[in-house]
């Protein structure tokens, strides 16, 4: 067995160890256990290590197929959860964690063998574009989770409104930067900054959607629509990220 495949086997073993660890956290997350931040931090570091080892095995950024994509998106969600881990709402924490856990588990459905990057990925713009997209998606998932928690919480709800606003704002900023890098990647890979491709079109749709969400602050009567908009945004996010690969088909779908 060569070094690349040996490292890949190690990354897969660590993946399953992380799976067991996250499954334990799923139970602990419903408690008020004071060590949950430290425990999740340790799991997230191990998770990132598995992704790093896989990257070393292919000698490139480890986002070349659907297994790696879902795995990395789950990692982005867990990192956002770390930021908000001190939020006392069990519903918020476990809703956010649940989405990350679901994508982490879904990654199992795809082949975990080594896939080397095709020529169109071999550019710095791809490396900058995709991780930023995952983090903005994770911020929007956070907004959705806060909206869900808001509906099931009595009393003070300002903390959820703040998380929703942060998700809208920082998510849109991150996604806008990602779109710039994505356009540059498109020009290098396909010779055009914009293509009539399902993923690109839905990326434009989701950008306008969350830009609209931000502008609700300028219309007092419309502010109450932020929570349902955050939940609707999650549906659009799933269509943009998953639906364009499995339901429509896109040039962005890699193996």
Account of the protein in words:
By secondary structure, the chain is an all-alpha fold. It has one domain. It is 73% helix and 0% strand. The chain has eight helices and no strands. The longest helix is centred in the last third of the chain and has 33 residues, at 158-190. The mean pLDDT is 86.
What does the main sheet amount to?
none
Alpha carbon gyration radius: 19 Å
Q: Look at the structure and give the mean pLDDT.
A: 86
Helix tally equals: 8
Structural class: mainly alpha
Percentage of residues assigned to helices: over 70%
Poorly predicted residue ranges:
none
* Shape, principal axes of CA atoms: flat
> How many structural domains are formed by the residues?
1
Gap from first CA to last CA: 24 Å
The helix/strand order is HHHHHHHH
